[in-house]
């Protein structure tokens, strides 16, 4: 029996790529039944986004790693939404579902009678989440939107990378599709809020979620740095605009992150580094002065950190309660003893390969823990079963 926190909910997932599937995977991890609707010929676009692929024992490609990362705990139903039969099946499924997630272009589903207005008449309790690049309204509403575009348009790339004045300077995207992931997280929050409202009112509602809105809202302190001063923050590489020292520093065998969050931590670092005089120097004694005089302090720190290895620094600084850490490759991440102890790498049952690797949900619920029932499904694997039952 599925005892997940959301085991009473059924989600009809018409989304593709990452933001929508990330949201539905989270809901599936929490116990919801996820029915993923896919094109019968090609499926979700990310099935073709490879290599790399999960391979069987003979080395044959089974599924793209990209598709695997965001489609576990789902049933795949292959339907052609352009056909009357496919549309009728989706309407029937929507009448028996609690939540629908889609990321078609604005108005794209209306011509099939699968938009919120049409489906809410059949199922007034339906919670319908639309994910687009720019939202349902506004001058850009009809534009398609992908994560890379939105990282640029939403200001994130103006903050990421080395300063223009340095070698290799220029805007850089984040190494994962972070805007899509953040949009998926916001979708889950909005959906669960709508579920809570429905419990009181009995009514479903439409959720209009845009990648650009999410990206701008997640600029956090940098957005307020601009709004309070009228000056756009500039790229600073690994440095922090408001905290010093809070960046990467060279060591004898690589680099380490030093994340000093207050003056007492800085004083502790200075003692470990055998330069206690820095902590009482008027230029460096407080964070405000360190920010003002970062061009004088950072070179001194860099000259000191190169004389010990990363592991030596971490051992010394952790004893002194100074936040620090290595810059790990993914191989090192999944070999880290704490990551292993927390079980962040998982193996999920797969019908062809036996198991498929995955990354655990960070949600730890004491009464309704996350369950990993199935890996990402084969295209159309559940079509007959779902349509027969529902």
Helix content: 25-40%
> How is the largest sheet built, in terms of strand order?
5-2-1-6-7-8
- How far apart the termini lie comes to 19 Å
Order of helices and strands: EHEEEHEHEHEHHHEHHEEHHHHHEHHEEH
What class do helices, strands and sheet pairing give?
alpha/beta
The Rg value, from CA coordinates, equals: 25 Å
Q: Tell me how many strands there are.
A: 13
CATH H level, superfamily name of the largest domain:
Crotonobetainyl-coa:carnitine coa-transferase, domain 1
In CATH, what is the class of the largest domain? Alpha Beta
CATH names the topology of the largest domain as: Rossmann fold
Q: What does this molecule look like?
A:
- By secondary structure, the chain is an alpha/beta fold.
- The protein has two domains: 10-217 and 362-389, Crotonobetainyl-coa:carnitine coa-transferase, domain 1 (Rossmann fold, 3-Layer(aba) Sandwich), CATH 3.40.50.10540; 246-335, formyl-coa transferase, domain 3 (2-Layer Sandwich).
- It contains 17 helices and 13 strands.
- It has helices at 19-29, 65-68, 84-95, 116-122, 147-153, 156-159, 178-201, 211-217, 220-229, 263-272, 277-280, 287-292, 294-305, 310-319, 330-335, 337-341, 383-389, and strands at residues 10-13, 33-38, 53-55, 61-64, 75-78, 99-102, 127-132, 206-210, 246-251, 254-259, 324-326, 345-350, 354-359.
- The protein has a six-stranded parallel beta sheet, sandwiched between helices.
- α4 (116-122) links the parallel β6 and β7 (127-132).
- The mean pLDDT is 97.
Give the secondary structure arrangement, pairings included.
Blueprint lengths: L9 E4 L5 H11 L3 E6 L14 E3 L5 E4 H4 L6 E4 L5 H12 L3 E4 L13 H7 L4 E6 L14 H7 L2 H4 L18 H24 L4 E5 H7 L2 H10 L16 E6 L2 E6 L3 H10 L4 H4 L6 H6 L1 H12 L4 H10 L4 E3 L3 H6 L1 H5 L3 E6 L3 E6 L23 H7 L1
């Amino acid at each position: 029996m599925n005892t997940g926190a959301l085991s009473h909910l059924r989600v009809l997932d018409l989304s593709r790529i990452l933001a929508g599937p990330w949201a539905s995977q989270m809901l599936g991890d929490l116990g919801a039944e996820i029915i993923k609707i896919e094109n019968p010929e090609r499926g979700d676009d990310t099935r073709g986004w490879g290599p790399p692929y999960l391979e069987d024992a003979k080395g044959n490609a089974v599924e793209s790693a990209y598709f695997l990362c965001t489609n576990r705990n789902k049933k795949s139903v292959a339907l052609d939404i352009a056909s009357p039969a496919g549309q009728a099946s989706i309407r029937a499924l929507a009448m028996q579902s609690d939540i629908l997630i889609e990321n078609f272009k604005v108005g794209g589903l209306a011509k099939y009678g699968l938009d919120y207005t049409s489906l809410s008449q059949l199922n007034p309790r339906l919670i319908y989440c639309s994910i687009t690049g720019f939202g349902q309204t506004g001058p850009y509403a009809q534009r398609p939107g992908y994560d890379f575009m939105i990282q640029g348009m939403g200001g994130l790339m103006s903050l990421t990378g080395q300063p223009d004045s340095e070698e290799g300077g220029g805007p850089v995207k984040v190494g994962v599709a972070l805007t899509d992931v953040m949009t998926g997280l916001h979708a889950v929050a909005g959906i669960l809020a709508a579920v809570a409202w429905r419990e009181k009112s009995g009514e479903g509602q439409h959720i209009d979620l845009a990648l650009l809105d999410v990206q701008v809202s997640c600029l956090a302190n940098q957005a307020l740095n601009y709004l309070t001063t009228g000056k756009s923050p500039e790229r600073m590489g690994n440095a922090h605009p408001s905290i010093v020292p809070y960046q990467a520093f060279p060591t004898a065998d690589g680099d380490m992150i030093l994340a000093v969050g207050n003056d007492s931590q800085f004083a502790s670092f200075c003692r470990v580094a055998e330069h206690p005089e820095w902590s009482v120097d008027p230029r460096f004694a407080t964070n405000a002065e360190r920010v003002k005089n970062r061009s004088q302090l950072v070179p001194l720190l860099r000259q000191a950190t190169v004389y010990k290895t990363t592991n030596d620094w971490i051992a010394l600084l952790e004893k002194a309660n100074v936040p620090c850490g290595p810059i790990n490759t993914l191989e090192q991440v999944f070999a880290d003893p704490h990551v292993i102890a927390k079980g962040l790498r998982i193996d999920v049952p797969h019908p062809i390969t036996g198991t498929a690797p995955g990354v655990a949900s960070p949600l730890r619920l004491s009464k309704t823990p996350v369950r990993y029932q199935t890996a990402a499904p084969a295209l159309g694997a559940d079509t007959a079963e779902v349509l027969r039952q529902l």
